[in-house]
Each structure stands twice: as structure tokens, then as C-alpha cells.
Amino acid sequence: MSETQSLPENILLIGIMGCGKSTVGRELQQRLGYPLVDMDQEIERMAGKPITAIFADEGEDRFRALETQVLRELALPCDQRRIISTGGGVIGSGENRRLLRGLGYVVWLDAPLEVILERTGKSRHRPLLHADDPAAKIRELMRRRAPLYQETAHLKLDTAGLDCGEIATGILECARYFFTHRRP
């Protein structure tokens, strides 16, 4: 059986921090009535502490292991259709990329560096931005992760200049086509 023949009708959102995954996820949830799974919230629930504390107490490797654990749980057989908003670095491991593609329709929300900086500039809850030069850090993350997002996504959508409703409409039209035209 091919990958597209067994896909559930989940919509997964990937992309760098600040690209709009959580906001677009809430919009899609409202329109479809599907449950929204925010992976960062699931990780915090599982660990019993905020992501910043996971990074501070146990390091990024522990956070990434929890991320994979959440994806494995989401991949278990389930009748539910969901919107899944991921963390920006979820695509770092090959196992995660395979799990994401197996879970449903994967949308890469992209935005230019300036937009990401504007959206993340005031956040104290993004451990990877606790750096001397956040712009350089984001630029490096974008450069390293872009090929992995490309490998994982069924659709790449540039969110700059679009409002949340326009983004959601584009995703829904493409997802509908994807799920309608996959082979039985």
C-alpha cells in the first residue's frame, strides 16, 4: 500500500517559529471543527513543565525526544481527524519526517526573515532565540531547516502578506484536492 493510500485526513502545519502555525491551526480548527493538537502544549503536558524549563533543565535533546514521543502517539490508529501544529524543529530527525508524512497532509508555512523577526521579537518563550543575535540565529535555522521542510511538506505556503483567513482557505482547498485525488 502506498503512503497516500493509507493517510488519515489530518492536516499538519510545519515551519519555523513565528510562521503562524498556532494561529492558522486555530483558524482551521474553527472552520473544520477538527480538534487542534498543539505539539508544544502536548510536550509541556507530558513533561509537566514549560518548554523553556525543559530546555533549561534537560536540554534540547530531551525536548526533541519528547517531540518524537508525541508524534509516535499521534501516529497510533485513530478515527479522529485533527489539525496538528508542530514545533519548528520537529523535522530535524528522519523518523519525525516519516511520521509527519504518514499522519496526513503536511503544509509548510513559510515567511521571510523580517516577518519572523517581527512576530518573534518580543517572545521570551522561545529558548532557541535566547542568543546575542536572534536574527542570525533565525537565519541559520531557516537555512538549515528549509531542505527538511521541503522534503516533508506536501505544500509550501508563503504566509507573508496574507491574513489568517486567506491562509486557511488556501490550505483547505489544497487539502481537499489532495484527499479527494489520492488513490484508494
Structure notes:
The chain is built from eight helices and five strands, in the order βαβαααβαβααβα. It is an alpha/beta fold. The chain has one domain: 3-Layer(aba) Sandwich (Rossmann fold). It has a five-stranded parallel beta sheet, with helices on both faces. α2 (39-47) packs across α4 (60-74). The chain starts with 9 loop residues before the first strand and ends with a helix. The model is unreliable at 1-7 (pLDDT under 50).
CATH class: Alpha Beta
DSSP strand count: 5
Mean pLDDT: 88
Give the CATH topology.
Rossmann fold
Q: Secondary-structure element order, as H and E?
A: EHEHHHEHEHHEH
Classify the beta-strand content into a percent band: 5-15%
Annotate the secondary structure layout.
Blueprint: E1 10-14, H1 21-32, E2 36-38, H2 39-47, H3 51-58, H4 60-74, E3 83-85, H5 94-103, E4 104-110, H6 113-120, H7 134-152, E5 155-158, H8 164-181
Parallel strand pairs: 1-3, 1-4, 2-3, 4-5
Helix pairs in contact: 1-8, 2-4, 3-4, 4-5
Features:
184 residues; 5 strands; globular; disordered N terminus; five-stranded parallel beta sheet; alpha/beta; Rossmann fold
Gist of the model:
By secondary structure, the chain is an alpha/beta fold. It has helices spanning 21-32, 39-47, 51-58, 60-74, 94-103, 113-120, 134-152, 164-181, and strands at 10-14, 36-38, 83-85, 104-110, 155-158. It has a 5-stranded parallel sheet, with helices on both faces.
